[in-house]
Specification:
Length: 123
């Protein structure tokens, strides 16, 4: 018991109302019931399904690395079999891998942008 403010019974109009966590307070101080408005806020037919850009770029980089290493080593072995002079085959493979990785990352980014535009068009 505090001596500074007297306790008031719960049925008096000056008692402070307790709000539940699922209720919101409106600008006038009244408690609004969110259950009635939940169906207005979330419409499952209008949910946007945007692509994850990081996943697209990661897959593009991994595919580009694999394709670049495999194709670079294959082209190097073809050059050796054909007796074409390659001074530094390792440099050729690394430059070829960097080029294919860049190409595949750009292609994956383009696919992500196309998927994003397609998700916006359905709205």
């Amino acid at each position: 018991m505090s001596s500074t403010s007297p306790e008031q019974p719960a049925d008096t109009p000056d008692a402070v109302e307790e709000t539940r966590p699922d209720q919101g307070v409106t600008s006038g101080g009244a408690v609004a019931d969110d259950d009635a408005e939940d169906h207005l806020l979330v419409d499952p037919t209008r949910v946007r399904r945007a692509p994850r850009y990081r996943a697209f770029f990661t897959v593009g980089a991994i595919v580009g690395l694999v394709v670049g290493v495999v194709a670079g080593t294959w082209l190097t072995s073809v050059a050796v079999d054909e007796e074409i002079l390659l001074l530094k085959p390792g440099v050729f493979v690394s430059v070829f891998t960097l080029g294919t990785t860049t190409l595949f990352v750009l292609l994956a980014g383009g696919l992500a942008v196309l998927a994003d535009r397609r998700s916006l068009r359905r709205r």
